[in-house]
Amino acid sequence: MPIPRSHNAGALMRGSGRRFRWPSGWQWLVMLVALLVLMPLSVLFIAWLEPAWDIWRHLQQTVLSRLLFNTFKLVVGVSLGALLLGVGLAWLTGACDFPGRRHFSWTLLLPLAMPTYVLAFVFLGLFDFSGPVQTQLRIWFGPGIRLPEMRSAGGVILVMSLALYPYIYLLARNAFRTQGKRALEAAQSLGCSPVVGFFRVVLPMARPWIAGGTALVLMEALADFGAVSIFNYDTFTTAIYKAWFGFFSLPAAAQLSSLLVVLVFGLILIEQQLRKRMRFAQSRLAPQAERIQLYGWHKWAATAACSLVLGVAFLLPTLQLLRWTLGIFHQEFTRRYLDLLGHSLLLGLSAALLIVTLALLVAYCGRRHQDRLTGSLIRISTLGYALPGTVLAVGIFIPLAGLDNLLIDLARSLFGIEMKPLLQGTLFVMLLAYLIRFMAAGFKSIDSAMHRVTTNIDEASRLMGLRGLRLLWRIHLPMLRGGIFTALTLVFVDVMKEMPITLMTRPFGWDTLAVKIYELTSEGEWERAAMPSLTLLLSGLLPIVLLMRGTDD
Amino acid sequence: MPDKKIPILELNAISQAYDSQLVVKDLSLILEAGEIGCLLGASGCGKTTVLRTIAGFEPLLEGEIRIAGEVVSCYNELLPPAKRRIGMVFQDYALFPHLTIFDNVAFGLRGTGRVELLRRTNEALELVGLYAEHKKYPHEISGGQQQRVALARAIAPRPALLLMDEPFSNLDVSLRERLSMEVRDILKENGTTALFVTHNQHEAFAVADRIGVMAGGEILQWDSAHDLYHRPVSTKVARFVGEGEMIAGLISSAGEITTGLGCLRGHLNDSRPIGSAVQLLVRPEDIVHDDESPLKAEVLRRSFRGANILYHLLLQNGERVQALVPSHCDHQPGEQIGIQPDVRHLVTFPVPG
């Protein structure tokens, strides 16, 4: 998150030698949020103080090397797959023109609405030996025909590439959009064939954006829990889950988590370097550059490619979900389902309100204090998005359970009372984890809205006699309304879809749609998992509509 | 050496259409080695399309294009842009933002060998005076410098023909004038044959040897700046290039025309018989301010231009002329001032209708 530097940037740090300025109330608040983010992180590394050697030995003998190799395969495969899809489609819809281009440019974002774990079980249901696709193929071509096994490394990679390519697509498309055909023409006028020009100019010019999107895809792939568990494909996240709920060893879970954190933060560092480059590499080409007109079979090939991806990644799965849902609707749409839905909505809404309120305060602090200390505090506060849900669940649970035990001991020794745990098994744990993980989602949209409220606007309002609360109420809030709404929607939908945190920290009886999907799919009940999935899919469409409003051309 | 000189660029009756709309009609021109040509016209007249067609980015509907004698475009046949030995300076420069200035200029030299690449890149950078900046990135240098990098990049591979699309339009006015002269010097020093398009006649006059005035997809006149200004072939060209007004006249004897300004003598290139009614082009510098003159005109409007004032004047017979007068002769609208015609080239056109 770029923080604008004022002329007195770093005054707090520089001045500290002569005169220490006590942080303001705003800064204390941001510091608190930053500490909340740092807490689970430090807990994970502190867990190494008592290594769970027996479990490590067991892991090492049985699964550790497979775990590492699996994670490696997944990350490499998914990034290659998502790159191929994301960059190819982004170039077609961003720089070229062909029949249907306008529609594809936004419909190709739709797979973002589909949680990876939903796409995962739909694909298993569709392409398994007994699934509709293979059955139909056997009818057409005889019983001998078989598709490659979907429940495999290749299958997970395919599913996750299809679900995650939009991250690359979205960023790369903006880059290609500003390039238009000019860059390729310039290369051609200097003696490159179009193909050579594509690799020497078009791709390198978009490299920061492509790499930025790839970093996001990598983080998602590393953090994914749902899709890999459905495929029984062991990675770090499933191992952390098993260490906790299978071996009941929190230290082992924490130590595994810390390894994953190191990987993820390596990625973040790379991503932030690229983000810096992106700002400098902004091309001076016209924002509405002319497109490359595709002719003849090229244009139909482009249409076909976009249709194929859209069909496989979104339309086909959605139709299958609909079909399953219609089949079981009358027996599944019960009081029990409404409870699940109610839990999901309630959690989503309360987390959204909590997070957006805090994000507003943090963003306001960033506006009032434009020094280096506040800048870094804000950056830490919004770092949680990078922590995989499984990691966060472990990192939150350990200190809170510790706090509980401390309280119980204190109560026993001081007052002789037998207390029950205060925090464990309450919504508080879950909301805290959500807060840490989705702070960035809320903060980003509010902060960008906040940047539109310039100091000139404040000064213009003051000249007309508006100040204090009335300034906040009549100028700031109306200007921030769009950003607040976007933030609420994004956080709400993220929480609705969230699986591992909810699964690992929910209080008894607080099952949500996502948890239900996990339970049903782990028993192979695809049909019954379809209805909650469809609900999540619908809610997932909301942020895409918001995204669309910002990117139409 | 062939005894007959082969022109570098030859357009033979080319036509070009977008969506069955003819945007270039039957256009021909020839550019000799070392010449700088210019297509001058308002936006939408098809000049950029001509340039893009020469570069090979657009197909051709009719006619043929030859570069150094070789047919590069004709109906249904198109040599790819990369094989045409052309260089191009784009309106927005299209510098590659991810490459340094050096790498931008060296881009077209790949495959020439390391020593040669180094030599020719440095040579091109020296030529445009930007050797000192070669390690920077495009966003780190000024607009004028970017323009010169674009030029260096285009001429470094020594193209047979350099094309420039509105090369100065992204610069501010003061820079534009200086740079257009610089670019001409660079091209002449390098012996580059070039064709550029612009809507700005000052740029065309400053840079080009030959200028084609374009309108509606056609070249109205292909001539030197001097001849365009002083011998326009049609009222359209006369109106587009320079300022001035048309007044009615009558050929009263050989080399003499009677008009509202009196009887004018001069070099007359009109073969119409004596007694024919014509239109006469009067440029602002053809009218001299003279307080003593019996010929009076009323000041309608004035625009101060520093050294001169351009007066819009109403003659007694109701016709209008313009006069460019040294700015110390200050008159206000409504005043009657004395004027004297001083028309050297009698440029006449038939009376319309």
Can you give me a brief rundown of this structure?
The complex is a heterodimer of chains A (553) and B (353). Chain A has 553 residues and is mainly alpha-helical.
Task: Describe the 3D structure.
With 553 residues, chain A is an all-alpha fold. In chain A, 76% of the residues lie in helices and 1% in strands. Chain A has 23 helices and two strands. Chain A has a two-stranded parallel ribbon with strand order 1-2. With 353 residues, chain B is of the alpha+beta class. Chain B has helices at 47-55, 101-106, 114-127, 143-155, 173-190, 201-207, 225-230, 235-240, and strands spanning 9-18, 21-31, 36-40, 62-67, 70-74, 77-78, 86-89, 161-165, 194-198, 210-215, 218-223, 245-253, 256-259, 262-265, 267-268, 277-282, 287-289, 296-304, 308-314, 320-326, 336-341, 345-350. In chain B, a hairpin with a 2-residue loop joins strand 4 (62-67) and strand 5. The longest helix of chain B has 18 residues, at 173-190.
